[in-house]
C-alpha cells in the first residue's frame, strides 16, 4: 500500500496533495487527492470528509475548481477525493462514452464481465481508501463523512446507506438520485450489473436503499441547482424525497434558484456543506 | 463592438459570463470573462477590477481556478479578465513555444513583422476592452483597478505605469518583474520589438518604467510565493523593488512562505488583493 506523491501545492495555509497507489480492489494504479489543513502541523488527529466526483471527472476537477480548501483550512478537516473509475486498463468498451467505463464507475461493485474484476469503486471507496487514509494521514479514526456531486453525489448516498454508522453524515450536490429511473443509471447498471431482471439494481439505488435502511440515525442533505440541465431527466431528487417521506427518513432538499450543474454551483455552496459535516463530526 | 455571450453561470449569487467579440486592436475574435456581482441587480454602478493572466492561459484559468468570485460578490465589484493573446490567426511561429505567440502576448504592442498588426494586447487591454466594458456593463466609469499573475502581473504593472491615473490601484502575483533581464522577457521582446539595440525594450519593462513615472500617486503591491520555481531566474522581484527604492516609488512586496507559482497560490491570496483594490476604488 505504498503511496507515491504526485504533486503537493500549498493553498490556504494547508497542503493539497495528489497520491497514486496500486489498488487491490480495482486492480490498477489509482490517484486520489488529499487536502491536509494547517491544523495538522499541531500533531492533532483530524476529521476527514470524502468527496466523490461526477461523470468524466478525475481527481483534478474538485481540487482545482471547488474552492473547498479554504473552508477545510478554517475548520481543520482533511478532504480526500478519489478518481471516478479505474483507469488504464483498456477494457474493450471502457472509453466509448462519457457515462460508462472510464470516468463513470458509479461507485458500485460490478458483477458482470468484463467489468467485475476492476469496477469495484464501492469497495475501493468504503474500504481500501479508508484504510490507506487512516494509515497515512493524521486522521481521527471513525470521524469521517462523505459528500459528492452528480454521479458522486449518488455514490456518497449509497456509500452511507449501505454502511450504517461508517460516516457521521452525508451530503450530495445534484445527485443522480434514482438511477433505476434515468438513462445514465439504466445504462450503467445494465453494463455493470446485468439486465434489470437480475434483481440487483435496487441494491445500488439510493431511492430504494432508504426504504430498507437500518442503523444509526442518518440525515440526507441534498443540494440542487434549479437551472440544472440534468434535473428533470437524470437527477430526479423528488423521487428520493418522496421515498424518504414515505419511510420517515430524515432528508433536506436545498433548492438553489438560478444555479446549474457546474463546479461554479458546487463552489458556491461547498462551504455550507463542509460546515454541515463539521457539526456532525464534532458532535 | 457587438458582444456574443459564450457562457453564463451563476456563482456566489452573481453571474460569471464569457463573451466573444471582434477586436479592432488585435484583428481577431477575442474572448473575455466578466463576473457581475449580485449588487448589479440593484441598478448600482460598480467598480471594476481587470485581471491579466499568465503564459499559456486563456480566459478560463482565472475563472475556474482563482475563486475570485466569492470575494467580488462580497465587495460588489465587477471582474473582467481577457485572454492572453490573439488567437486563430495562424501566424507562422505563433504556436511553437509556451512563451511566445499564442497564449503569450505579454500585454505589449509589437513593432515587428509579422506580429505588429495583431499582437497589440496593451492597446486592447487599456483602450478597447475598457470601452467595451464601460458600454456593456454597469460600471462606475473611472473606478477601475488592475491586477494579474506572472506575465499578466507584469502586464498589470506596465498598463498602470504607462497610463498614469487610468487605474486607481495595481497589484501583481509573481510578476515577471524585469523582462529585460530574464529569458522569457528577452525572447518575447526580441520577437515582438526587435533586437535590444532598437532601444524600445525599456518602454515595456516595469523595472525601467518606475524610474520615469510621472503622474498621480501610485503604489505597487507585489505578491510572491517563496517556493516559486520561476522566482530566481524569471521573476526577479528584487530588481523591481530595488528600482522602486532608488526613486522612492511606493512598493510593497508580500513574501508568502511555502507557496509556488500556481493558481493554488493565487486562490489563497486573491481575496486580500480584491480587498486592497476596493480600498483604493472606494476612496
UniProtKB/TrEMBL annotation, chains A, B:
NCBIfam families: fghA_ester_D. PANTHER family: S-FORMYLGLUTATHIONE HYDROLASE (PTHR10061:SF0). The keyword Hydrolase applies. This is S-formylglutathione hydrolase. It catalyses: S-formylglutathione + H2O = formate + glutathione + H(+). It comes from Brassicogethes aeneus. Its EC number is 3.1.2.12. One of its GO terms (molecular function) is S-formylglutathione hydrolase activity. GO terms for cellular component: cytosol. Serine hydrolase involved in the detoxification of formaldehyde. Keywords: Cytoplasm, Hydrolase, Serine esterase. It comes from the Eukaryota. It is found in: Cytoplasm. The active site is at residues 150, 228, 261. It holds the Pfam family Esterase. Its main location: cytoplasm. One of its GO terms (biological process) is formaldehyde catabolic process. Belongs to the esterase D family.
Amino acid at each position: 500500500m505504498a503511496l507515491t506523491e504526485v504533486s503537493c501545492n500549498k493553498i490556504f495555509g494547508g497542503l493539497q496533495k495528489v497520491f497514486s497507489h496500486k489498488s487491490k480492489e480495482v486492480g490498477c494504479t489509482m490517484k486520489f487527492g488529499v487536502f491536509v489543513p494547517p491544523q495538522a502541523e499541531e500533531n492533532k488527529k483530524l476529521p476527514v470528509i470524502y468527496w466523490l466526483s461526477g461523470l468524466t471527472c478525475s481527481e483534478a476537477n474538485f481540487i482545482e475548481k471547488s474552492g473547498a480548501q479554504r473552508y477545510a483550512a478554517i475548520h481543520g478537516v482533511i478532504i480526500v477525493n478519489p478518481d471516478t473509475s479505474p483507469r488504464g486498463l483498456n477494457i474493450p468498451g471502457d472509453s466509448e462514452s462519457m457515462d460508462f467505463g472510464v470516468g463513470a464507475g458509479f461507485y458500485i461493485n460490478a458483477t458482470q464481465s468484463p467489468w467485475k474484476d476492476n469496477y469495484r469503486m464501492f469497495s475501493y471507496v468504503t474500504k481500501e481508501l479508508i484504510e490507506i487514509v487512516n494509515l497515512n494521514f493524521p486522521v481521527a479514526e471513525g470521524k469521517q463523512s462523505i459528500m459528492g456531486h452528480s454521479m458522486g453525489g449518488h455514490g456518497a448516498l449509497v456509500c452511507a446507506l449501505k454502511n450504517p454508522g461508517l460516516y457521521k453524515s452525508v451530503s450530495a450536490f445534484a445527485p443522480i438520485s434514482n438511477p433505476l429511473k434515468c438513462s445514465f443509471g439504466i445504462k450503467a447498471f445494465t453494463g455493470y450489473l446485468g439486465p434489470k431482471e437480475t434483481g440487483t439494481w435496487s441494491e445500488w439505488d439510493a431511492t430504494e436503499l432508504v426504504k430498507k435502511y437500518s442503523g444509526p440515525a442518518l440525515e440526507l442533505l441534498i443540494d440542487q441547482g434549479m437551472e440544472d440541465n440534468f434535473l428533470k431527466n437524470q437527477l430526479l431528487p423528488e423521487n428520493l424525497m418522496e421515498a424518504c417521506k414515505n419511510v420517515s427518513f430524515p432528508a433536506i432538499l436545498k433548492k438553489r434558484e438560478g444555479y446549474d450543474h457546474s463546479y461554479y454551483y458546487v463552489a458556491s455552496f461547498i462551504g455550507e456543506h463542509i460546515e454541515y459535516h463539521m457539526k456532525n463530526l464534532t458532535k
